[in-house]
Every structure is written in C-alpha cells, then in structure tokens.
Amino acid sequence: MCFQRTLSALKYCSLVTVCSITVVTIALVYKSFSAMSEDPRIVYVVDPSNVYIPITGNTAPLRMFPASWWDAVYVFPGILPMLTLALSFIF
C-alpha cells in the first residue's frame, strides 16, 4: 500500500479509526457518568499512629497539580527507579 500512487485505500482505515475512537469515547463517558451517580465509596487510610481515617469520594483531598516535584516523578513508575539510581551515583 505504501508504493501506490494514491492513498485512496486509506480512507477506509481512517473511517474505522474514527469509529473505534468514537466507541471508546462513548464507553468512557458512560462509565464515568454511571460511576458519578453511585454512592461514594468509603476508603480507609491508616496513618503512622495506626488510626483509621475514613475518606469518601466527596472529602478526598484531590489536587489539580502535584504538591512537589517528587509527587510528579512518583506517578511514572519507570522513572522512579532510574532517578534513584542516578541520584545514588551522584550523591
């Protein structure tokens, strides 16, 4: 297909791609709205003094941006071991 003079054969591939992305988007939106309408789940967090702290979906401390650079690096599990290995050679 790469050696053809026109790329008219790709128009069906783009149609399939748009349809599949549309289906995935509809599924994600449906699951998101159905999860938002449910009762909030209670999650218990144990602090260092072994006290159970209940956290519901409404009181969870959600932040739009990380509090520190370490929190931003911690999100990517592959970067964290490489960073600690690199810092161990530096310090």
List keywords for this structure.
single chain, mainly alpha, two-stranded antiparallel ribbon, 3 helices
Mean of residue pLDDT values: 77
Structural class: mainly alpha
- Taken as a percent bin, the fraction of beta residues is 5-15%
Order of helices and strands: HEEHH
**Spatial strand order of the main sheet:** 1-2
Largest sheet: number of strands, sense, barrel closure: 2 strands, antiparallel
Approximate helicity band: 40-55%
Between the first and last Cα atoms, what is the distance in angstroms? 54 Å
Principal-axis shape equals flat
Assembly status: single chain
A few lines on this structure:
This protein is mainly alpha-helical. It is built from 3 helices and 2 strands. The model has no long low-confidence stretch (mean pLDDT 77).
Q: Can you give a write-up of this model?
A:
This protein is 51% helix and 9% strand. The protein is flat and about 70 Å long. It is built from 3 helices and 2 strands, in the order H-E-E-H-H. The longest helix is centred in the N-terminal third of the chain and has 28 residues, at 10-37. A hairpin with a 5-residue loop joins strand 1 and strand 2. With 91 residues, the protein is mostly helical. It has a two-stranded antiparallel sheet.
